[in-house]
Design goal:
Layout lengths: L4 H11 L11 H18 L8 H10 L20 H16 L5 H13 L8 H12 L3 H14 L4 H13 L2 H8 L4 H29 L1
Helix pairs in contact: 2-3, 2-6, 3-5, 3-6, 4-5, 5-6, 7-10
């Protein structure tokens, strides 16, 4: 079952403002819809039983609500706030911005999913699905583009993107993420395939930089 249409419209309105300066754009809404689409595909893959789909969808939208005090990142580091901080803020924003518009049971379920998601072994299956869906966003060309967007927002450019790719491979970042970042082996296999895509793109970026350097 999907979220109520009126509630979804309210969420969409909140997500059209992408930062503290009141900038309007589709980025957060697109990210929320993409995250939910991925999580929904995991449900269809039957990775977990007795999933509360509405609460999981609401959690996906909540995670994209504009965060307070977004932190800038250095080259090679994960392009978002600490996962626990992000989940906690999302739960708080969900209660303060959406709480009066939804049933208490749905709100409680969604906030629990968000609170459980950063744990190594979440107690609810929806939190495992959400964590895997969110972590998969860091892999592949999608992850490379998201990282590029974050770096560009803090003034970095193509060279810093390439340097970040190199540092992650040099320090075994991706191997650690593959080992500890997923609850379901099926999703881990998807991440491996996407990582191959990103590495192919990285080779092309290196080749073009060397060509430009003469």
């Amino acid at each position: 079952m999907s979220l109520d249409a009126k509630l979804k419209r309210h969420l969409q309105q909140l997500l059209t403002v992408v930062d503290e300066h009141g900038t309007h754009g589709p980025r957060l809404l697109d990210d929320a819809q993409r995250l939910w689409s991925r999580a929904h595909s995991f449900i269809q893959m039957k990775l977990a039983d007795d999933v509360h789909a509405e609460a999981l969808e609401l959690s996906c939208y909540a995670l994209q609500l504009p965060m307070r005090q977004m932190k800038l990142i250095s080259t090679g580091k994960l392009g978002r706030t600490n996962l626990r901080e992000r989940a906690e803020q999302a739960a708080e924003l969900l209660v303060s911005l959406i709480g009066q518009h939804i049933e208490e049971e749905l709100l409680d379920r969604a906030t629990r999913i968000l609170q459980e998601m950063p744990h190594r072994n979440p107690m609810v299956e929806e939190a495992k699905l959400l964590a895997d869906a969110l972590n998969l966003d860091d892999f592949g060309l999608t992850g490379l583009l998201v990282q590029t967007i974050h770096l560009a927002r803090q003034g970095d450019g193509v060279s810093q993107v390439i340097d970040g790719i190199d540092k992650r491979d040099q320090y075994g970042y991706w191997e650690a993420r593959l080992k500890d970042g997923f609850h379901f082996e099926q999703v881990r296999q998807i991440a491996r395939r996407r990582l191959d895509h990103a590495r192919q793109a990285a080779k092309l970026l290196h080749a073009e930089r060397e060509e430009d350097a003469g």
